[in-house]
């Protein structure tokens, strides 16, 4: 599902850029669309533990995604404004975003009991 979300993000970003949307906005919209697709297709199951929805864990995930989207959109926009092609920029940032997302999700999901304890407070 992540590959489909990435493909959706990439195609939508390039399409929006070709329509004249500014790179920051194009990336923000495309990334949010990809993240939303992946959430509903697969990730939402992560936020259930023993039948309970872990609100604090989800809020942490949502905040990470929102801040990450803004930061990456700024980087994408800046690089494109300095003359790099949108395809090069979007492909070029993949290693950093993949690594950051992997490490964050590993941390987030490594100890579900942590989120149950936080929710009960």
UniProtKB/TrEMBL annotation:
Residues 3-109 form the GtrA/DPMS transmembrane domain. The chain crosses the membrane at residues 20-41, 53-75, 87-104. It is a multi-pass membrane protein. Keywords: Membrane, Transmembrane, Transmembrane helix. InterPro entries: GtrA_DPMS_TM (IPR007267). It is found in: Membrane. This is GtrA family protein. It comes from Sphingomonas sediminicola.
